[in-house]
Design goal:
mainly alpha, about 60% helix, elongated
Length: about 70
Amino acid sequence: MAPGTWAGARMPIPGNAEFAVYFLIELIFALIWIVADSVDTRQWVLYTTILTAFYILSRGIAKASRVLEQ
């Protein structure tokens, strides 16, 4: 290794595409909630809670698939 170079692990880039999609869907939900009279706060909270639960579950499954068995 040449002097002045670093041989450590690279840090991952913050954020990911899945979070961007999640944020976009949340933004769409918020716009629907603001514009539509048929969607009240209770429905919006229910839909965003369900979406968040599935997002966290999917991230857990994705991380669990990368765990090496010992």
